[in-house]
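Dear H.,

Thanks for agreeing to be a second pair of eyes. The structure we're designing against is below in token form, covering all 246 positions.
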């Protein structure tokens, strides 16, 4: 028996949050697989650095846009239409960390929700409208185990990730007949810019198996995207061996 897999070569992929952390690692890996990737971020400098780190960056393009705004999302998918000619896969990594809601200014916690949750839904809507016209596609959302562990200090962040989880699990029932897959990756602690500790502390946490490298999540994303046409990895939870649960 030969296991069917899906090649990523030539796939048209919109990747949110590709300038830092998991998104940046995923950008490099998908480009290496031969995919045509469009990513975006809020800052030109970080975008340039992410594209430069991609060995085959001629297959990756980027624009400056903000996932928290309608204008930003519209500009991303207009660019996808113009540069890629459509969207086969959407991978959402864009997310911001947060403090407890009572410790944040009103505009700040609303911006986190607009980035993490509203922006994800808006990108999914735009991708679905394109995928249903072409006969199918794949939506992959990066969630978080924060929805399960509900750690102190993560009330706003956990709310956004729980929203993505519920959205994805419901959405897949709504778009399965359109031949659109829906998957969620739930990472545990990852060595990214979101961590409120120094690079040295992050390296020590990785050495103690308390934190994962972003590249390990990118590998999980590749695994999910390359399954055969008849299978859908609905939810994949990946965490360090010694994961803090509170």
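And this is the sequence the design step returned. I haven't edited it by hand at all.
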């Amino acid at each position: 028996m030969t296991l069917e897999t899906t090649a990523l070569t030539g796939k048209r992929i919109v990747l949110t949050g590709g300038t830092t952390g998991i998104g940046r690692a995923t950008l490099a890996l998908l480009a290496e697989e031969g995919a045509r990737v469009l990513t975006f971020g809020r800052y030109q400098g970080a975008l340039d650095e992410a594209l430069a780190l991609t060995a085959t960056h001629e297959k990756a393009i980027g624009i400056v846009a903000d996932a928290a705004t309608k204008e930003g999302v519209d500009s991303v998918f207009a660019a996808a239409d113009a540069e890629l000619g459509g969207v086969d896969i959407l991978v959402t990594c864009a997310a911001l960390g947060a403090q407890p809601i009572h410790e944040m200014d009103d505009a700040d916690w609303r911006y986190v929700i607009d980035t993490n949750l509203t922006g994800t839904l808006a990108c999914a809507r735009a991708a679905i409208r394109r995928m249903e016209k072409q006969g199918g596609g794949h939506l992959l959302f990066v969630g978080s185990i924060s929805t399960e562990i509900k750690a102190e200090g993560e009330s706003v962040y956990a709310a956004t990730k729980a929203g993505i989880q519920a959205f994805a699990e419901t959405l897949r029932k709504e778009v399965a007949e359109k031949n659109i897959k829906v998957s969620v990756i739930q990472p545990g602690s990852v060595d990214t810019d979101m961590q409120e500790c120094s690079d040295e502390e992050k390296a020590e946490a990785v050495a103690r198996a308390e934190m994962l490298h972003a590249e390990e999540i990118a590998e999980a994303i590749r695994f999910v995207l390359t399954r055969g046409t008849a299978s859908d990895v609905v939810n994949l939870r990946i965490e360090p061996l010694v994961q803090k649960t509170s």
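Two observations from my side: Residues 17 and 23 are 5 Å apart (CA to CA). The two ends are 44 Å apart (CA to CA).

Warmly,
E.
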